[in-house]
Amino acid sequence: MWTETWLFTKRSLVTTIRNPFSFIPNLIISVFFLLVYTSGLSSIASLPQFDGSAYLNFILPVSIVSGAVGGAGGTGQALVRDIESGYFARLLLTPATRTAIVLGPMIAGMLQLLVQTLLIFAVAFMLGLTIPVGLPGFLFTVLLAIGFGLGFAGYSVGVALKTRNAQAAQAGTLLFFPLIFLSTTFVPKELIEAEWLKVAATFNPTTYIFEGMRAVLTQPTIDWAALSAGLAVAGAMSVIMIVFAATNARGALKQK
Questions:
Q1: How far apart are CA 60 and CA 209, in angstroms?
Q2: Distance between alpha carbon 66 and the CA centroid of its chain, in Å?
Q3: I want to staple 159 with a disulfide (CB 3.0 to 4.6 A). Which of 12, 172, 174, 238 is the partner?
Q4: Residue 113: exposure state from Cβ atoms within 10 A (0-12, 13-18, ≥19)
Q5: Phi/psi at 117 (nearest 5 deg)?
Q6: DSSP designation for 138
Q7: How far apart are CA 11 and CA 145, in angstroms?
Q8: Distance, CA of 16 to CA of 113 (rounded, Å)
C-alpha cells in the first residue's frame, strides 16, 4: 500500500508544482494576515495576560492555521477535477487500495502546507521573530501544522468525494474559516469579554492547535500540558478525517 500511496502523492505534488497559482494566493493571504495583525495589534502585547511575549510570536499560529484551511480547499478541488475527467474512475478499476487513493492527495496537501509553513516562518524571522525555547519550539510548531494540515486535507478530500463538485468542495472548506475566529485568535482567553465566545473557544479544536503552538513559541519554557493537548487534537483530527475520506471513496466506488 505504501508504494501506491507514494505514487499517488508524487502525482499530486507534480500537479501542484505545475500549477503554482493554486497555492501562491493562499500563501500571500497568510503572510498578509501576519503583517497586518502584527503591525496593527502588537501594542496589546504589553498587557500582563501576554506574560511579556512578543505579539509576533502570539499571532504566528493564526497565519499558519489560516494557510492550512485555505490549502485544504485546493486538495479537494484537485480531486474533483480527477473525478470530472474520468481519471478517478480509472483508478478505482486498478488493484490500488482505496486508502492509498485518498492518502496520496492528503499527504501531498500536508507537504504543501509544510513548505508553506516554512515560508511563513521565513517571513516571521525577517520581521524579527525569536523563539525563546529555540529549535524545539520551531520543530513542534511545524509538527502541529502538518498534523492539522493532514486532518484538514482529509476533510477536503472527503467532502470532494461526497459532493463531486468543485464549488461544493470549496464551500465546505470555507465553512471552517469561522473556527479560526471563534477562538483565542487575537488575545488570550482571559481577555475575551463575551461569555459565549469563551464557550465556543473551549469547544473549538482550533483553540488547542493555537495554544499548542503558543506553548512552544511564546515562553522560555515549554508548556507541556498545552502542547500535549494540541498534539492530541491534531492526531485525532488526522485519524478521523482519513476514515471519513476512505469511507467516501468506497461510496464513490459503489456509484460507478
A1: 12
A2: 7
A3: 172
A4: buried
A5: -65, -40
A6: H
A7: 23
A8: 12
Residue written as grid cell 487575537: 186
All three cell numbers of 92, joined, read: 478505482
DSSP 49: G
Instruction: Read off the C-alpha cell for 51.
Output: 506574560
The length of the chain is 256
pTM: 0.83
Residue 95 identity (one-letter amino acid): P
Hey, what's the cell of 217?
A: 513559541
pLDDT tens-place values along the chain, 256 residues long: 677 778 878 877 787 777 777 677 778 888 888 888 888 888 888 888 788 888 999 999 998 888 777 666 666 677 777 777 777 777 777 777 777 777 787 788 788 888 888 999 999 999 999 999 999 999 999 999 888 888 877 787 777 777 777 666 666 666 677 888 888 888 888 888 888 998 999 999 999 999 999 999 998 899 999 999 999 999 998 888 888 877 777 666 555 5
CB 149 within 8 A of CB 109: yes
Closest CA to 111 of 6, 228, 21, 227: 6
